[in-house]
Amino acid sequence: MTTTENKTLDICAIKKLLPHRYPMLLVDRVLTWEANKSITAIKNVTANEEFFNGHFPHKPVMPGVLMIEALAQTAAILSFLTMGVTPDENSVVYFVGIDNARFKRPVGPGDQLKMDVEIVRVSRGIWKYKAVGTVDGAVALEADLMCTIRSTDDASKAAGQ
């Protein structure tokens, strides 16, 4: 993939880049992306989401940790697109850090969470991103994310297995 193309990705293309599956796949569509720069994706939040059964039945709210996870999945997609690779079953993206996370408004059934993620820098295998999630143009959350991409073989060695 070239570094200047803007493309959309449907759910089938997303599933080729992420190992996540229902109920943990939290990116429904990529609207646009530019390698080495940024990506915009969406998560359509529906009343059928499993987490709404307990969070909270009387006033459904998408858990903040899942909104952060959706941003991280969006960042992972951007990283793979930037590297021009399709990950294999041994590729794993790990969180290294989450800084400056702020939640500005609740997200619930019927909302479309629009996720904008920008690469801030890549250094020694650590990717740093600025991520913002909005609903109807209003900021719902923002965070600085740091991730690394590893092989499951490397991860097992690091864990002393």
Automatic annotation (TrEMBL):
GO terms for cellular component: cytoplasm; membrane. Its main location: cytoplasm. Pfam families: FabA (PF07977). One of its GO terms (biological process) is fatty acid biosynthetic process. The keyword Aminoacyl-tRNA synthetase does not apply. It catalyses: a (3R)-hydroxyacyl-[ACP] = a (2E)-enoyl-[ACP] + H2O. Keywords: Cytoplasm, Lipid A biosynthesis, Lipid biosynthesis, Lipid metabolism, Lyase. Transmembrane segments: none annotated. The active site is at residue 55. Its EC number is 4.2.1.59. GO terms for molecular function: (3R)-hydroxyacyl-[acyl-carrier-protein] dehydratase activity. It comes from the Bacteria. InterPro entries: FabA_FabZ, FabZ, HotDog_dom_sf. It is found in: Cytoplasm. Belongs to the thioester dehydratase family. FabZ subfamily. HAMAP family: FabZ. Involved in unsaturated fatty acids biosynthesis. Catalyzes the dehydration of short chain beta-hydroxyacyl-ACPs and long chain saturated and unsaturated beta-hydroxyacyl-ACPs. This is 3-hydroxyacyl-[acyl-carrier-protein] dehydratase FabZ. It comes from Massilia eurypsychrophila. The lineage of its organism: Bacteria, Pseudomonadati, Pseudomonadota, Betaproteobacteria, Burkholderiales.
